[in-house]
Structure to design on (423 residues):
């Protein structure tokens, strides 16, 4: 029994061992535990005026939710952009930032605002 | 081998939405593993937090091929895998990614046997100093004085000297590392991958859940462990010992930060009495004396 390409892409079943059985195989992809941004009680907010583009927050973020965008800062510096769908709000980024450019802000403030605007993201 | 942070690979080897607790040192460390070895790495993971962090089928939170395996078989599975891939002409680097319990206690015999056989693998002990995945039980790598759910009044024994035990197998490469110093860990991984035979890296990995500290402090506590001298960065290359920065500047105890700065941030040490802190200081001094003695014998000090 062959494994179809679409089956492989969905990561539902992927390999056939010699006996001809389809075996479940997990495929790398975002959200293995769902939108982990739901776990967050504090939100990291970057002050791009202050950020020097040193990459340390990007390096240390345990959830790898920070992307460095080249040259997009107010002084042409590379800047971190955080994916709030998955950021767990641990605060590691804020603790390692050498210029204190990241503030941890109570998540409830954003939830109230998002409710007002009808955008229930996090 | 200097590491330029901005030039590290951007490809995600730890993928957002995995199952680790906020501030997890194991997912932090796994990122560096991917950055250092890239797509060549094939990883064997015995039971532990990193088995769970990967999340639920059909998704996978680590972006490398992973073989999840029972505790006792991690190093032997990796041995067979490395030999089979070599025979099939696959250019891969097989890595064991095991916890401190999986390394110093349950997987110890397979690790020792693979080291003795000289298998061409990198064995990484991700040391969060207790069995975290099952709820913070003490292991052979829990330090003196630390509270765990099986050492309510603090552990009474010292940490097993794993790097020295593996080095005594006369393998070509043994190193310590810390999630607080990713550039050092990445450089050591790259060096290990360039050496044939058995390589061992012992990664210090402070866990906010088991050590009872705020999850924002994972990297800072890892750095404090080194700055206070409680964790020492060094490597043995073909038996020759070398201290790595910043530990190479901390031979003189006066250059180190007071150990209290490290201990006071962690709930697992909250109950310590002054005499316990003295015992911890003594343990640290003994570790440094061993290093200094070895450097003197080599004629490097
Ligand atoms: C033989 C065996 N005994 C016990 C367990 C239960 N178990 C699963 S994970 C774990 C803890 C592992 O601790 P460690 O190796 O330190 O890794 P960590 O979870 O801290 O990453 C235990 C005891 C098991 N899976 N197999
Ligand atoms: S709060 Fe934690 S998960 Fe969120 S961006 Fe910062 S380091 Fe990453
Ligand atoms: S650590 Fe701070 S200064 Fe460095 S890139 Fe991140 S926000 Fe900017
Ligand atoms: S218990 Fe510690 S090591 Fe385990 S997943 Fe949570 S933070 Fe990571």
């Amino acid at each position: 029994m062959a494994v179809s390409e679409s089956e492989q892409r969905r990561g539902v079943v992927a390999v056939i061992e010699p006996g001809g059985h389809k075996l479940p195989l997990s495929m790398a992809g975002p959200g293995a535990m769902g939108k982990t941004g739901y776990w967050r009680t504090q939100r990291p907010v970057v002050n791009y005026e202050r950020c020097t583009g040193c990459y340390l927050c990007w390096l240390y973020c345990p959830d790898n939710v920070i992307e460095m965008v080249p040259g997009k800062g107010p002084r042409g510096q590379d800047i971190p952009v955080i994916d709030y769908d998955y950021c767990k709000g641990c605060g590691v980024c804020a603790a390692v930032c050498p210029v204190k450019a990241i503030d941890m802000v109570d998540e409830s403030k954003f939830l109230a605002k998002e409710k007002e605007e009808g955008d229930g993201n996090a | 081998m200097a590491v330029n942070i901005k030039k590290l690979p951007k490809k995600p080897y730890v993928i957002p939405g995995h199952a680790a607790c906020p501030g997890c040192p194991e997912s932090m460390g796994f990122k560096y593993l991917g950055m250092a070895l890239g797509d060549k790495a094939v990883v064997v993971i015995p039971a532990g937090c990193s088995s769970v962090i990967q999340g639920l089928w059909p998704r996978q939170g680590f972006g490398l091929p992973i073989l999840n395996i029972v505790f006792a078989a991690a190093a032997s599975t990796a041995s067979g895998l490395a030999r089979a891939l070599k025979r099939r002409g696959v250019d891969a680097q097989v890595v064991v990614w095991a916890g401190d319990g999986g390394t110093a206690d349950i997987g110890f015999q397979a690790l020792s046997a693979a080291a003795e056989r000289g298998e061409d693998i990198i064995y990484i002990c991700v040391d969060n100093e207790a069995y975290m995945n099952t709820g913070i039980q003490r292991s052979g790598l829990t330090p003196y004085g630390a509270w765990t759910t099986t050492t309510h009044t603090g552990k009474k024994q010292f940490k097993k000297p794993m790097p020295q035990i593996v080095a005594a197998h006369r393998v070509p490469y043994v190193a310590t590392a810390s999630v607080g110093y990713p550039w050092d860990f990445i450089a050591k991984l790259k060096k290990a991958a360039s050496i044939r035979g058995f390589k061992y890296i012992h990664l210090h990995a402070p866990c906010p859940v088991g050590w009872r500290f705020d999850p924002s402090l994972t990297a800072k506590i890892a750095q404090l462990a080194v700055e206070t001298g409680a964790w020492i960065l060094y490597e043995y290359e073909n038996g020759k010992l070398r201290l790595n920065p910043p530990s190479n500047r901390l031979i003189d105890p006066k250059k180190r930060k007071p150990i209290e700065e490290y201990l006071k941030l962690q709930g697992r040490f909250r109950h310590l009495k002054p005499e316990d802190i003295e015992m911890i200081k003594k343990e640290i001094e003994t570790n440094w004396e061993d290093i200094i003695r070895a450097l003197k014998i080599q004629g490097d000090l």
About this structure: The radius of gyration of chain A is 20 Å.
